[in-house]
Input
Amino acid sequence: MNEMILKFPARSENEVFARNAVAAFALPLNPSLTELSDVKTAVSEAVTNCIVHGYRGKAGWITITCRTVGCKLFVEIRDEGRGIEDIRQALQPFFTTLPSEERSGMGFTIMQTFMSDFSVESTVDAGTKVMMSKEFGIREQRDAG
Amino acid sequence: MKLQWGRRGDNLYIYLSGELDEHSVAGVRGEADKLIDENAGLSRAVFNLAGLKFMDSTGIGFLIGRYKRLKKYGMGMYLESPEDNADKILSLSGLYSLMPKI
Output
């Protein structure tokens, strides 16, 4: 078992650093390139959400907590931003509160698809926490889509 | 993020390379739109994604945005050579039905 806590300002320039730091942390578990790329994408989506939706461009902190247990990586990504009013709606593919900014509304769908487990907790005006895990070394089912 | 381009016959080729995310998209958005405007008389635009090492859902928004702009000019949009990561996201979001992979 290993653990890591990473805290950084909610600025988009930190996205590349955040996803690569989580990927580097997961390396001892011997993930395949595809698995690693899935983790990076999911982390990037969650961090983007914190910056764009959680803080809406205002200053704030993002905290990533990672843990490895056996061949499983647990990632928790948290902000103290505005929170999500309707989580069920936010989880719908293509739903976005900011359509004018070329947002696809696919962030949560990608996190759910690319990781083994996914859940989200949010409180309006207090923040949002996304919890995800990925088990490495399972034969990946070919994507039928 | 880097954008290069070329014009062959009736096609505008746009080559994207690097990592496309919320941070890097701002620069290439304007650059791509300028190119599209300048080449508005052509019949189609081909986005080559071979050099795109990383893309998240920001890429979907970016591509749909350019698709809409091209449509205004009556130009078709096509995608070429996506890496596995991008291909997975593009398939999942159904983007190939708007902009076929060639």
Summary: Chain A is about 30% helix and 30% strand. Residues 33-54 of chain A form the longest helix (22 residues). Chain A touches chain B at residues 12-13, 15-16, 19, 34, 37, 40-41, 44-45, 48, 51-52, 93, 101-104, 106-107, 109-110, 113-114, 143, 145 (CB under 8 Å). Residues 2-144 of chain A form a domain with the Heat Shock Protein 90 fold (CATH 3.30.565.10).
